Structures are given as structure tokens and as C-alpha cells.
């Protein structure tokens, strides 16, 4: 009888230890995966922060370039000259020939002003197009990098028998809304 009790206690001890070890492993995996996910999320946050900073820099450079383009005095000088000639044209002190000559000059200056405005608009549009392209590249790179980080975390969780879930959140980068996928461990 003592042998049966001892065998029963030994079996109970063995099974209890085995159950405890099995129960401890998933908790250990959960903790391990959670730490991996936390590191991945921190890395994703760093990537987002860097992208936002770079987008702000790109915008500031573009605004400065546009300011330089629009700040040139050439158009202002042409507008001032046109205004002065238009004022003279509207005065009643001109005879027919003077009026025609001045009118032709006003027309030429108006054309010149229009050409300069079109050139300026084209230059501004080129800056805006470059900014758009640069932001597109920045955002595409961010998405690729964060998706790779997320994929690695998902795989890490799967290898340990746990599900890692990507939950997309909206992030503003350069005035654009981007969906980025921070992670959490599914339970």
C-alpha cells in the first residue's frame, strides 16, 4: 500500500511538474513576444517620427523656394510700370498719336507681365511637383519599412504559437494621411 501511495505521489509530482512547465512556457512565450512587439512598435514610432521631421523639412525648403520665386521684383517692377502708363493713358492730356503709341506700349507691357506671371507660376508648380514626388517617396519608404518591421513581428509571434495583430492607425505626414500598422499580441 505504501508503494502504491508513493507511486501515486510520484506520478502526481511528475504530472504537476509537467503541467507547470507546460503552463509556464506559453506565459514565457507571451512575455517574450510582447517584448518583441513593444520593440517593434518603438521602432515603428521612430520611423514615423523621422518621416514627419523629414516631411516638415521638405515643406519648409519648398516654401522658402516659392518665397524666393514670388519675391523677385521683376513682376512688381512691370506692374508698377504698367500702372503708371495706364494712369497716363487715362489722362486727357494725350493727342491721338500719343494715345495710340502709349496704348501699344501698355499692351506690350501687359503681355510681358502675363509672360512673367506664367513663368513664375510654372516655377512654383515645379517646386510643388517636386515636393509632391518627394513626399510620395518618403511615405512609400515609410510604409515599406514599417510593413517589414510588422511582418517580422508577426512571424516571430507565429513561431512561438501566438498571433501578432496589425492595427492600422492614421498618421499625418506632410499634410497627407497615411495608414501605418502598429502591433499588438492577440490573446
Structure commentary:
81% of the residues lie in helices and 10% in strands. The protein is built from 3 helices and 4 strands; from the N terminus they run H-H-H-E-E-E-E. Strands 1-4 form a two-stranded antiparallel ribbon. A two-stranded antiparallel ribbon has the order 2-3. Strand 2 and strand 3 form a beta hairpin. Helix 1 packs antiparallel against helix 3 and helix 2 runs antiparallel to helix 3.
Care to count the β-strands?
A: 4
Proportion of residues in extended strands = 5-15%
Tell me the strand order in the biggest sheet: 1-4
Tally of helical segments: 3
Instruction: State the secondary-structure class.
Output: mainly alpha
Q: H/E element string?
A: HHHEEEE
Break the fold down into its secondary structure elements and pairings:
Layout: H1 2-70, H2 73-90, H3 96-159, E1 163-166, E2 169-173, E3 176-180, E4 183-186
Antiparallel strand pairs: 1-4, 2-3
Helix pairs in contact: 1-3, 2-3
Quick summary:
Helices cover 81% and strands 10% of the residues. It has helices spanning 2-70, 73-90, 96-159, and strands spanning 163-166, 169-173, 176-180, 183-186. The strands form two sheets. It has a two-stranded antiparallel sheet with strand order 1-4. Strands 2-3 form a two-stranded antiparallel sheet.
Question: Any key phrases for this structure?
Answer:
two-stranded antiparallel sheet, two-stranded antiparallel ribbon, disordered N terminus, mainly alpha, 81% helix, 3 helices
Amino acid at each position: 500500500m505504501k508503494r502504491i501511495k508513493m507511486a501515486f505521489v510520484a506520478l502526481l509530482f511528475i504530472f504537476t511538474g509537467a503541467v507547470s512547465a507546460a503552463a509556464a512556457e506559453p506565459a514565457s512565450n507571451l512575455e517574450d513576444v510582447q517584448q518583441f512587439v513593444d520593440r517593434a512598435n518603438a521602432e515603428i514610432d521612430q520611423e514615423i517620427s523621422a518621416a514627419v521631421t523629414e516631411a516638415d523639412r521638405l515643406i519648409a525648403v519648398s516654401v522658402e523656394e516659392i518665397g524666393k520665386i514670388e519675391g523677385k521684383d521683376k513682376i512688381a517692377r512691370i506692374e508698377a510700370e504698367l500702372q503708371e502708363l495706364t494712369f497716363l493713358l487715362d489722362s486727357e492730356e494725350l493727342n491721338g498719336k500719343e494715345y495710340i503709341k502709349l496704348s501699344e506700349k501698355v499692351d506690350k507691357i501687359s503681355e510681358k507681365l502675363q509672360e512673367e506671371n506664367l513663368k513664375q507660376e510654372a516655377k512654383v508648380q515645379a517646386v510643388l511637383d517636386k515636393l509632391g514626388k518627394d513626399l510620395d517617396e518618403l511615405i512609400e519608404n515609410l510604409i515599406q519599412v514599417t510593413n517589414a518591421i510588422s511582418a517580422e513581428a508577426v512571424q516571430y509571434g507565429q513561431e512561438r504559437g501566438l498571433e501578432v495583430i496589425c492595427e492600422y492607425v492614421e498618421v499625418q505626414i506632410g499634410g497627407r494621411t497615411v495608414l501605418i500598422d502598429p502591433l499588438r499580441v492577440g490573446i
